[in-house]
Amino acid sequence: MSYDMGFVPPALFGPGRLVEVPSRAKTLGARTALIIADPFLADAGLLDPLTAGLKAEGLDVDLFTEFSGEPKTTHVTAAARRADSVDLVIGIGGGSALDIAKSAASIAAPDADALDYAVGGKPLAARRPRLAIMIPTTAGTGSESSATNILSDPDGNKRWIWGHVTKPDLIVLDPELTVSLPPALTAWTGMDALVHAFEASTNRRTNPGGQLHGHHALQLVARALPQAVATPTDIEARGALMLGSFHAGIAIDNCNCAIAHNISHAMASFGPVHHGLATALAFEATLPWLVTQDTAELRAAATALDCSLTNLPQRITALMDACNIVRALPETCQIPGSQALAAAMTREPNLGILEVTVGAPDAQAMARAVFELLGETA
Ligand SMILES: [Fe+2]
């Protein structure tokens, strides 16, 4: 056996550690910073202490919040052009903010165009042109520890800016930043982390290094998620989710994902849907097929979830019930039928994810399973 493991950036974990960011930024050598943040963080004044701290350390600070929803190549292009005038990019927010910030720091230039990298195949520079600090405020995507940055192109297809160079110089995991996350978003993002850990630990590309992180993440997320949904201020549960998301990010960074993400990305091509919700629905719908594969890796992942492989579908259904996840797509994402979903699953670039799962899934059957879960026939 042989396999590669990508590097994991330095990370700080613990409640309240956001306050260390300004001094760390100065230690990295930054004199100017662009904060790329979810707009609501700025609107609610939640960035004020960070901005004040950076200024107290002598840094000039600019702010970029011109994005919403899932990240798009147009967002990254605009952010990368703004990032050209600073030497540090600080990403703070959910996975969208972090993917935009990591990408912008990696392609910063006055005439940068994210499409060149995400669609055109232009290689990233060997060294990231700007320093980068990433601060997640959700626990789900694991973007902070991943080389993958997912963006929608102008046609709505999911694309990637990929490279270990996009990983930041520092990660700050402060669970206090996640306590205001509403229960539904906590559940959706937590399930995304759980599926990252599961798929990375069980697909064709899995390896013992990825499984080490993936199994740890499965335990952390499965045990803490219902508690964090029920009691949002439980800082211990929030911390477990944040660490779980981080370790799941490392797992997926090394081993990639599988069928649930193929379907999730295919769903998103029909209209806006939260990535965590779509992924959770696809995971639950395809588990009955997946457990019939009965590999050692699947059995080990089930053990990490405190159940047998046979009982895994019921275990996940019970977990999603405990987190009050409604099995429905939003009005913004209506899929005309299972055949349309299957066609999207087998279209590039989604096809690449379909192929990294165990076995050879029948896209038509998987798409029908999703529709059955949603209570629809098509
Ligand atoms: Fe995901």
From TrEMBL:
This is Long-chain-alcohol dehydrogenase 1. It comes from Pontivivens insulae. It is an enzyme of class 1 (oxidoreductase). Keywords: NAD, Oxidoreductase. SUPFAM superfamilies: Dehydroquinate synthase-like. PANTHER family: ALCOHOL DEHYDROGENASE, ALCOHOL DEHYDROGENASE 4. Residues 186-322 form the Fe-containing alcohol dehydrogenase-like C-terminal domain. The gene is adh1_1. GO terms for molecular function: alcohol dehydrogenase (NAD+) activity; long-chain-alcohol dehydrogenase activity; metal ion binding. Gene3D superfamilies: 3.40.50.1970, Dehydroquinate synthase-like - alpha domain (1.20.1090.10). It catalyses: a primary alcohol + NAD(+) = an aldehyde + NADH + H(+). Belongs to the iron-containing alcohol dehydrogenase family. Its cofactor is Fe cation. Residues 12-175 form the Alcohol dehydrogenase iron-type/glycerol dehydrogenase GldA domain. Its EC number is 1.1.1.192.
